[in-house]
Design brief:
Blueprint: E1 5-12, E2 20-26, E3 33-42, H1 45-52, E4 61-62, E5 67-74, E6 86-89, H2 98-101, H3 111-116, E7 127-129, E8 132-134, E9 147-151, E10 155-158, H4 164-167, H5 173-185, E11 192-196, H6 200-212, E12 216-221, H7 224-233, E13 237-240, H8 246-253, E14 259-264, H9 269-277, E15 279-287, E16 310-313, H10 321-333, E17 343-347, H11 351-360, E18 365-369
Parallel strand pairs: 11-12, 11-14, 12-13, 14-15, 15-16, 17-18
Antiparallel strand pairs: 1-2, 1-4, 2-7, 3-5, 3-9, 3-18, 5-6, 6-10, 7-8
Helix pairs in contact: 5-6
Bound molecules: nicotinamide-adenine-dinucleotide and zinc ion (2 copies).
Length: 373
C-alpha cells in the first residue's frame, strides 16, 4: 500500500467554479508521511474561502482538511501511528519553529506554507493528473479524496470504537470552536458568553461553553433553524441579528452588565463592533472567522478604555490536536459534546451540493462519506 495509487478526488480547478470529481495519481508515501484511506471528510468554510480565491493555495488543488480514516501505510520515519490505526486529520504544523516547540502549533511560524502552500517542502505534490501537478497536502492532508498521503503532524490516533463516519469534523471546525472556549478563554463557571454565527465553529463553541459551566450562553445568527439547534445544544438565549439592536439585547440579557466573553465566527465588522460594545468590564472578544486581507474594524476606544477589555484572534482553538481531539471524543462518549447533531452526510459525487447546503444554512456541518454511493 506504499506504492503509487489511483484515487478518486474532488478537484478545485478554477476559482468560483464547482469541484470536479476526477481520477488522480497519488505517489509513494515519503518517510514523514502516512497513507490514509479516507472514510469521512468534513466541509469547512475555509475550503469555500479557497475555492472563492481568498486564500493563496495554487489551483488545481484537492482541498478537504477535516479527514478521518484508517492508516494503510507509514513512511520509514513515522513513529506515532501504525498500519490499521484509526486517525483524525487536523491542521499541519512544522514541528520545529519556536511556537511549535512551545506547544503552540496553532500559531506555527510556517503555518501558511504548511496548510495553504499545496506542496511538500521540496516543492513536489503527492497528487497529479497525466503528469501535471495537482496541489496536495492542503492542511497536510487534502482529504476530499479516497486516499491521501498525510504528514505525520496532521495525524491524530483515536480509539477504533468511535465511528469514523462522524469524526472528520473534529479535525478543524469543531476543534476550533471548542478549543477557543476550553483552551483559550477558559471561562470560569457562571460566566456569560455570546457566539456570533452559529455554524459549525459557533455551535461547537456553544457545546464547549456548556461543558465549561457558562450559565448565560447567547447564540446570534440570521438562520432560525441554526438558532433552534443552538438552543438544543445548550444556548440559554438566541438573537436573530436581522433588524435587532444586538447591543441592547445583550445588555438586557445580562442585566446591564454586558457579556464576559464574545466569540465571532462571521468576521463582519458591524458584529465585531457590536460585540465589543456589549462586553462587560474586563471582557474578551475573540475573532475566529476568516476575512479577506485588508478588512478593518472601527472599535470605540474612548469610553471603552476604562473597561479594560481584550481583543484577540484565535487559530485552531489554540489546541494541540493530538491532545485535545481525544478529549473531545471522551466528552462525546460521556454525552456532553453531541457534535453529531451538526452533521449532514453526502457522497463524494454530491460534494458541490454539500457546499451549497452549507452556504444556504440548511446543513451545519456537511460530511463527505467516501464509500457512499
Ligand atoms: N480561526 C480558525 O482557526 C478557523 C478555523 C475554522 C474555521 N474558521 C473560519 O470560521 C468561520 C466560520 O466557519 P464555519 O464552518 O462555522 O462557517 P458557517 O458558514 O457554518 O458559519 C457561519 C455562520 O455565520 C452566520 N452569519 C452570517 N452572517 C451573519 C450575520 N450578519 N449575523 C449573524 N450571523 C451571521 C451564518 O448564518 C452561519 O451560521 C469561517 O470564516 C471559517 O473560515 C476559522
Ligand atoms: Zn512550526
Ligand atoms: Zn477548517
Amino acid at each position: 500500500m506504499n506504492a503509487p495509487l489511483r484515487v478518486t478526488a474532488a478537484v478545485a480547478r478554477e476559482h468560483g467554479q464547482s469541484l470536479l470529481v476526477e481520477e488522480l495519481d497519488l505517489d509513494e508515501v515519503r518517510p514523514n508521511e502516512v497513507r490514509v484511506r479516507i472514510v469521512s471528510a468534513g466541509v469547512c468554510n475555509t475550503d469555500a474561502h479557497v475555492i472563492a480565491g481568498m486564500m493563496p493555495t495554487p489551483l488545481p488543488a484537492v482541498l478537504g482538511h477535516e479527514g478521518a480514516g484508517i492508516v494503510e501505510a507509514v513512511g520509514s520515519g513515522v513513529r506515532s501511528v501504525s498500519v490499521g490505526d484509526h486517525v483524525v486529520l487536523a491542521a499541519a504544523y512544522c514541528g520545529v519553529c519556536r511556537r511549535c516547540r512551545a506547544g503552540e502549533m496553532a500559531y506555527c511560524e510556517n503555518l501558511f506554507a504548511e496548510d495553504f502552500g499545496g506542496r511538500r517542502r521540496d516543492g513536489s505534490t503527492s497528487l497529479s493528473k497525466d503528469g501535471q501537478q495537482v496541489s496536495s497536502h492542503f492542511f497536510g492532508q487534502s482529504s476530499f479524496a479516497t486516499y491521501a498521503n498525510v504528514v505525520e503532524e496532521s495525524v491524530v490516533r483515536v480509539d477504533p470504537d468511535v465511528p469514523l463516519e462522524h469524526l472528520g469534523p473534529l479535525g478543524c471546525g469543531i476543534n476550533t470552536g471548542a478549543g477557543t472556549v476550553l483552551n483559550e478563554l477558559r471561562p470560569p463557571a457562571g460566566s456569560s458568553l455570546v457566539v456570533f454565527g452559529t455554524g459549525a465553529v459557533g455551535a461547537a463553541a456553544i457545546m464547549a461553553a456548556v461543558v465549561a459551566g457558562c450559565t448565560t450562553i447567547i447564540a446570534v445568527d440570521i438562520v432560525d433553524s441554526r438558532l433552534e439547534l443552538a438552543r438544543e445544544l445548550g444556548a440559554t438565549h438566541t438573537i436573530n441579528s436581522q433588524g435587532a439592536d444586538i447591543v441592547a439585547e445583550l445588555k438586557a440579557i445580562t442585566a446591564g452588565d454586558g457579556v464576559n466573553y464574545a466569540i465571532d465566527t462571521t468576521a463582519r465588522p458591524e458584529l465585531l463592533r457590536a460585540a465589543a460594545d456589549a462586553l462587560a468590564v474586563r471582557g474578551t472578544l475573540v475573532l475566529v472567522g476568516a476575512a479577506p486581507s485588508g478588512r478593518e474594524v472601527p472599535f470605540e476606544i474612548g469610553d471603552s478604555l476604562i473597561k479594560g477589555w481584550t481583543f484577540k484572534t484565535v487559530v485552531q482553538g489554540s489546541s494541540v490536536p493530538q491532545v485535545f481531539i481525544p478529549h473531545l471524543i471522551d466528552l462525546w462518549r460521556a454525552g456532553r459534546f453531541p457534535f453529531e447533531k451538526l452533521i449532514g452526510e453526502y457522497s463524494l459525487d454530491q460534494i458541490n451540493t454539500a457546499f451549497e447546503d452549507s452556504r444556504a444554512g440548511t446543513t451545519v456541518k456537511p460530511v463527505i462519506l467516501m464509500d457512499a454511493a
